[in-house]
Amino acid sequence: MQARHRTALFLLPAGAWFVTMLVLPLVVVLVFSFGERGEAGGYSPAFVLDNYFNLPARWTAFQNTLTLAPVGTLACLLIAYPLAYFLAVRASEKWRTLLLVLVIVPFWTSILIRSYAWIFILGGQGIPALISAMGLGDIKLINTPFAVLTGIVYGYLPLMVFPIYVSLERLDKRLLEASADLGSPPWRSFLQVTLPLSMPGVATGCMLVFILLMGEFLIPAILGGGKVFFVGNALVDLFLQSRNWAFGSAVAVALVVIMLVTVTAYMRLTSRWAGGRDDLSLM
Amino acid sequence: MSDSNNTISREKFMAELERFRKGSVTRRHFLGVTGLGVATAVLGTAMPGLRPRAASAAESIGDRVVLATWPNYHDPENFKAFKALTGAAVDMNVFGSNEEMLAKLQAGGSGWDVFVPTNYTISTYVKENLIVPLDMKQIANYDVASFETRFAGPGTVDGKIYAVSKNWGTTGFAVNTAKLGKLASPTTWKEFWDMTQAEFSGRTMVHDYQLTTIGNALKYFGYSFNSIDAKELADAEKLLMKAKPHLFAITSDYQPGMRSGDAWLTICWTGDGKQLNRDLPDIHFVLGKEGGEIWSDFYAIPKSAPNPKAAYALINFLLDPKVNAKECLFHGQPVADKRVDALLPPEILKDPILHPAAELLNALEFGAAVTLTDPHRAELMARFKSA
Amino acid sequence: MQPDTDPPIAEFRATTKMFGEVGAARDLNLSIRKGEFLSFLGPSGCGKTTALRMLAGFEAPTSGDVLIDGERVNDLPAHRRPVNMVFQHYALFPHLDVTDNISYGLRQRRPRPAAAEVAQAVEQALETVRLPGYGRRRIWEMSGGQQQRVALARAIINQPKILLLDEPMAALDRKLRRDMQIELQSLQRSLGITFILVTHDQEEALSMSDRICIMRAGRIVQIGSPRELYDRPNSRYVADFVGKSNFFAGTVSRVEATGTALAVAGGLRIIGTAAPGLAPGQTASASLRPEQISLAHGTTTADGTTCVPVRVVNRIFLGEHTEYLVQHDDLGAFLVLVPRQAEASEGSFEPGEPAFAIWRDGTALILPEDA
Question: What is the ipTM of this complex?
Answer without folding.
Answer: 0.85
